[in-house]
Amino acid sequence: MKIFNVEQIRAMDAYTIAHEPIASIDLMERASQAFVRWFCNQYVNTRPIAIFCGKGNNGGDGLAIARILGACGYDVQVFIVEYTLNATDDFRHNYARLGNHLTPRRIHSENDLPKLGSKVVCIDALLGSGLSRPVEGLLSIVIQYLNELPNRLVSVDIASGLYTDQSNGPDDVIIKPKYTVTFQLPKLAFLLPQNAEYVGEWHVVDIGLSTRYITDTVTTYFFTDKFEAEKRIKPRQKFSHKGTYGHAVIIAGSYGKMGAAVLSGKACLRSGAGLLTMHVPTCGYEITQISVPEAMTTVDEAEKYISKLPDLASATAIGIGPGIGQEPATVKALEKVLEQAKVPVIVDADALNILSTNRHLLYKLPQNTILTPHPKEFQRLAGESSNEYERLEKAQAFAAKYKAIICLKGANTAVILPNGEVHFNSTGNPGMATGGTGDVLTGIITSLLAQKYDPADAAILGVYQHGLAGDRAAEARGQTALIASDVIEHLGW
């Protein structure tokens, strides 16, 4: 699913109006009906509704929503904020369509703000996606009033005051909704942690905008949903054998950190690799053989850390990093992997920290090496960022410079490709914020690489399946009780 910027969103509307063809007021009606369908599934018509409208097209949506909800039997009040003398044509048309059924109240000053009962559901239709400057004056007062209410708050398309595809200032006044119901496609703002309280739980409703425009328009941002993920899965063939599905090699573990190796190995096997060799320090031999009996194990000559490479001749993918520590001999082993690898490589955990302190190794990364940093690891690699938009730009620049693929872990993990594309993930939950889940991801992606998935597809699909397994695990265990092993046990293809 594509994610468009403000200009592309405007152009998508205009293209649909011109080529469907459909009048803009009728397209607004379609959007409002889609919003109401979602709303009626969420709230029964015994809940009173208060809709706060600006005087632009978002306010026009609010007026149409008010009329449609009223026809559905809801008790609706409409409040128009008089922050300007100007109103858009579609706002005026929808105001006229209210007729005698609803009489909006005008808010000219703070004294006009209503007193609402606690059961009233408030709908924010003040400002839309085209906002380009901070909210001031009367609108600012209304937004602060709505945020202070205990009532449920639902934003139409985007929370008023929130920029669609750039960072807000720290003092900007922005609606804090429980839900955001957006039109046709998600917006970049929804996917970045700094905006969490200004988005709430977001939902996309289809309003029939031009599929041709969406297909033909180029963007660098994407959202990986079920359809986008599953189309990347390679079906297994009847006459295949274990050799068909590759030989993964995972170099992992050190004294006290063998759990990371075990988790990555188990996840690799659960994700379909035909063969797995785990290379571990001597202290980890028995642990690995007992915990991951399906894997072959080679033993490093060092007792407590990785110092040498295993035989990589038959490998079809290499994963390195979980629990390996940062001993000088381990640094040299990582360097040799990067120099000698003739197959795809994924670098995680301690190996990422080695890269950040031995920056010359970044220039030895094989093309399309996959890096899987959490925010702190990425900060060590690329430097501090003032906000998530800047961090995303740094990740795009980093991926382009080193021709690497970055899985920037977190809610909506972003997979950044060397060509600048960013693929946000749709799966996963806060229960996965626990030790070892990153090692599981490393095992999954290593397995996909071993099976000859294109590195970009391996990263995008691996992140999706990792989050999906986490969602299944949370459903079974609850988020608080979830541990990394649960994610492995809920992997399913």
UniProtKB/TrEMBL annotation:
Cofactor requirements of the protein: K(+); Mg(2+)
Residues annotated as domain YjeF C-terminal: 225-493
InterPro entries in the cross-refs: Carbohydrate_kinase_pred_CS, CARKD, Nnr, Ribokinase-like, YjeF_N_dom, YjeF_N_dom_sf
Sites where the protein binds K(+): 58, 124, 160
Residues of the YjeF N-terminal domain: 9-215
Pfam families, alphabetized: Carb_kinase, YjeF_N
Organism superkingdom: Bacteria
Gene Ontology MF terms in the entry: NAD(P)HX epimerase activity
EC number: 4.2.1.136, 5.1.99.6
Residues binding (6S)-NADPHX: 57-61, 128-134, 157, 260, 323, 374, 439
Cofactor binding description: Binds 1 potassium ion per subunit.
HAMAP family: NADHX_dehydratase, NADHX_epimerase
Function: Catalyzes the dehydration of the S-form of NAD(P)HX at the expense of ADP, which is converted to AMP. Together with NAD(P)HX epimerase, which catalyzes the epimerization of the S- and R-forms, the enzyme allows the repair of both epimers of NAD(P)HX, a damaged form of NAD(P)H that is a result of enzymatic or heat-dependent hydration.
Binding partners and assembly: Homotetramer.
Name the record gives this protein: Bifunctional NAD(P)H-hydrate repair enzyme
Organism, as annotated: Dyadobacter fermentans
